[in-house]
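Figure 2 data, in text form.
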Amino acid sequence: MTPHLLIRDKDRAALEQLLARYLPSVTAWAYGSRVNGRAHDASDLDLVLRSTDLSPIPFSEMEAFVSAVRESTIPILIEARDWARLPVSFHEEIEKKYVVVREGRR
């Protein structure tokens, strides 16, 4: 069974639009409570952002995306992290259960 992302369709669409605008080549995975079924209405959405070659995403691009998310109408807190800046042990935990929110363009 493929994991399901517990987020309203309109919020997911808005998030996908922001990713396409600010981080077009980056793939976004959701993980955590909104994927594993333990979320409640006030749960945040955990995202990990993966560049095409898995190198670090420039801080300026991350900040532009995070600012746009904050200013959006998406009513939940979104925590975005750069895959390249996370420890391998965290990669292993995320890889256990995630949902691809958007595939980056190559």
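Caption note: The longest strand covers residues 45-50.
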